[in-house]
Amino acid sequence: MADQTELMAHLPDHGPLHDLVFLRLAYPTIMLAHEFGLFQLLNDSEATLEEVGARLALRPRAAEALVAVSAALGMVRHVAQGRFALSDSGKAFLLPSSPYFFMPLMKLPERWLENHQRDYLRNAFRQGDEPTTPWAVIIEQLPAEEIQGFIALQHAMILPTALALAKNPVFADVRNLLDVGGGSAALSLGIAANHPKIRCTVMELAPIARIAQRNIDSYALEDRVTIHIGDMFNDPWPAGHDGILFGNIFHDWDVESCAKLARRAFDALEPGGRVLLHEVPLNENKDGALFAACYSVAMLIHEKGKQYTLAELRTILGEAGFIDFRCEPTAAHYQLISARKPNA
User: Fold this and answer.
1) Architecture of 21-127 per CATH?
2) Once rounded to an integer, what is the mean pLDDT over residues 177-189?
């Protein structure tokens, strides 16, 4: 039996470990940006993300991820009104015409990596809209052992953030929380342990719900965290909730899918209730931060979405009818984005 007090303890910053996992995508992304001709393109003229995609034959989210990583590393700069150009650092170090051309040294790590890794990532960029190795977006179709592995990975990443999330003041006003696509129940466990008056319902597909139930039982939180089996896109949502939580959900999906989830949340919420997104937003200019940019590259590989900017998330929620948009940092690059359903 796990100890509930573990879910209430203060944790050191674990952001550097998240960096260790995801920032490894920065290196091959920069190498592919060079291969695709991004730096020469932006040296010749400023360009929007749409123009970059058209010139380099990349789909929109692939072009956005490529530019975001390059900009986060200071090789590309946002000029104005969504236009990008090569930075002074990019001109000095990433153009073959420069006496300080850095690419020969940049190729050194390839000797330390397996040769297929950049080929794998190249396919993800070129394929664009469809993930090369889908996970969450086809989770129910995966073999049982792959589902177990993916949920274990997500649990290790998300559980430490649950403690910081649970300390957000927004939960003082929540009594019944629906955790949509709650995976291993990691966020609900942290919230329930820190707020005995909150009752959490984790909505998940049957194979994942079984894993979540084991985690709930291990912390003896079954009186405060329950399971509702269902497909968040197609099945009815349980009623009577004044809070609806999406943890690492929107970034898995395209805008149209996120808009559908936002509308379903609006319809399911009690008047005055809040929708809560726990995500890692991209900068408004789509020029970083580096972790968020690399996370978008990971979405190219595994899912159908990307890291959204706060403005994009505000638009999705606003078009569903939500008001009173707020955003606060929690832990390890994550932010809690919330909005309210108007009172009747």
Assistant:
1) Orthogonal Bundle (1.10)
2) 98
